User: What shape does this take?
Amino acid sequence: MAAYERKDWAACATAFEQAKDLYSAACCRAQAGALDPAFALLARAIDDGLRDQRLAADDDLAPLHADPRWQRELDHLAAKTAARRAHLNAELIQIYEDDQADRAVASYEQIDWSKVTPRDVARRKRVDEIIAAGGARAADDYYHAAMVYQHGDAVAEIQRAHDLAVQAVALDPTYDQAKWLAAASEDRKLMYEHKAQKWGTQYKKVDGAWIVWPVDPAITDAQRDEWNVPPLADALAHAARMNAAK
Assistant: This one.
């Protein structure tokens, strides 16, 4: 990440390749203008189970867009995603997508909680029923369930989110989104308990301004990277951007 921040694309690509983060390596190769290795890495990342559906919106891959191979890889990802979804719990996918749709707004202030909160309660209830019946089998199933619980209001609900995310990682140790969610749910639980968070994923509005909730200084950016959490400086910069956008 340090090489990425200073735009040392060759060094960042090599580091990510060594860490077996093929998608990030592809981004660095693309930024370096090395299109052939970038496409090769991207194809391997998709074959290895890349779940990031925001491929087309990732500015790091913009140098690839004019190449005829770009559409091929978009189609490649779509086909792999469809094949994976065929083995997942369709109802958990729908519950997860409904949960995300309720939050697809420019800011949380625009959410009508009088309508969303009852839907959240119903979704958590149904998630529990599905899991109790053995309906969650794959890592994605547990990730979808965990994200629904991440939006709970009680410490026990956030702990449930953490446990489900950890199970997703146990089933697929390469699942970066689940790693991040495991860290974020741990942070949210600590914040709800009025304790310092570990990873730096949680924000709170204080006196009209967004802040990063206090963070345990003993946790390093290297440890954050193991759980797919950006460096703490990124979180602080994001809080500044949110305040500047007001």
Q: What stands out?
A: The first strand starts at residue 203 and ends at 206. The two ends are 29 Å apart (CA to CA). Residues 90-244 form a domain with the Serine Threonine Protein Phosphatase 5, Tetratricopeptide repeat fold (CATH 1.25.40).
